[in-house]
Amino acid sequence: MRARWWPAHKVEALWTEKGSAGEPFATLSWWQREPHWGGLVIEEGSQPVALMPLHWRQVAFFRFYRQPLPLPWTPIILWSPLPQRPDRQTRLWARVLGAIAEWIRGERLAYFSFVLPPPSCYEPAWAQRRLALYATGSFILPPGTFAPSAELRRKARQAAGFPFQRMNLEEALALWEAYRPAGVSSTMGQAIRRHLTPEYWRAYAVGEPPLALGLFMWGKERVWYMASMYRAPSQATTRLLYEVIQIAHEEGRLFDFWGSVLPGVERFFQQFGGQWEVRCRVQTWRFW
């Protein structure tokens, strides 16, 4: 297998021909809303078997390749059938990832930063090409696994007197931008605004006016907790998550505490009892 960079118009044509897989990335809109993008197409002979779309930006002599900011990872869309046997799945991922790693190694004056989706975090494909992977991840709660402790239920009851409601997305984002947590750049709000659509996003709040609110990416199989704010110290955020986790599970979706690696956030998320899902980040400079 080998990987080649295709410009946006060629990726769009290929996407139209081949289709997509791997929600919530069912359309190219996540990348089409970015100023510059394209994709790494992995080929077997002359046939495209996989695609990894990426956003890019040119700064002086350097080109920066990244995933769009709101996305939790960069999808690798397989058009080659995934074998049923686990060992053959591993061999397929090793070949696809090896082709991507070889292409990155061959680039010059470039920077790469993106997270691999959970099934494709196969380190040998990168280590054998002297490229490092960095561990990241988040707490997740698959449907049927939320078993709140007595302490967590007690905290949620402290905010039981405040209404829990679904909010208009634009109003929720404007409120988040006004009260966003310290240390969170306004760039995050700008990126979310570019991608904010009812098809893939929901906003929920506790209180009227809201004491706490959350912006959630709502996929077909997984819900990501992407951004939040609170206006006064209370258990409103605990109640918010307590309710949204149950909604996600009632709809058969896994709940993902995106951002679990952040200091302070990790301890807060631990109390909800999730399991840790390891993912890998590719982050490397290529000079000469």
In words, what does this structure look like?
- Strands 1, 2, 3, 4, 5, 6, 7, 8, 9, 10, 11, 12 and 13 form a 13-stranded mixed β-sheet that branches.
- With 288 residues, this protein is α+β, with helices and mostly antiparallel strands.
- The relative contact order is 0.16.
- The mean pLDDT is 91.
- It has nine helices and 13 strands.
- The protein is 31% helix and 32% strand.
Overview features:
single chain; alpha+beta; Aminopeptidase; 2 domains; 13-stranded mixed beta sheet; 9 helices; 32% strand
CATH third-level topology of the largest domain = Aminopeptidase
Model regions low in confidence, pLDDT < 50 over at least 5 residues: none
Please, how many helices?
A: 9
Which radius of gyration do the C-alpha atoms yield? Answer: 20 Å
> N-to-C terminal Cα separation, in Å?
24 Å
Q: Indicate the proportion of strand residues.
A: 25-35%
Strands, total number? 13
In short:
By secondary structure, the chain is of the alpha+beta class. The protein contains 9 helices and 13 strands.
Write the layout of secondary structure elements.
Layout (H helix, E strand, L loop, with lengths): L1 E6 H11 L10 H4 L4 E8 L2 E13 L2 E5 L10 E2 L7 H21 L3 E7 L7 H4 L5 E9 L8 H8 L6 E4 L1 H11 L6 H10 L5 E6 L5 E7 L3 E9 L5 H15 L3 E4 L7 H6 L4 E12 L2
Parallel strand pairs: 4-6, 11-12
Antiparallel strand pairs: 1-2, 2-3, 3-4, 3-5, 6-13, 7-12, 7-13, 8-9, 9-10, 10-11
